[in-house]
Amino acid sequence: MAEVAYRSKVRVERIKGSLRHAWLPVEPAPVKFGTHGAVAAHYGAKEGTYEPHATTLDYLVAAAAG
Prior knowledge:
alpha+beta; 3 strands; 24% helix
């Protein structure tokens, strides 16, 4: 088996509700993950009760499309 070429060191902190901060390699500030639109509605979040941010799913789709 080959040696591990890269291991990502990421830290995720839950702030409140669906809001999370993720510290990613080489990023100077944490990235915010949250919920918005149809995803928020699916989970029963009421408008005005959350700060809209991209979901982890949004980031996953962007990474796969990248």
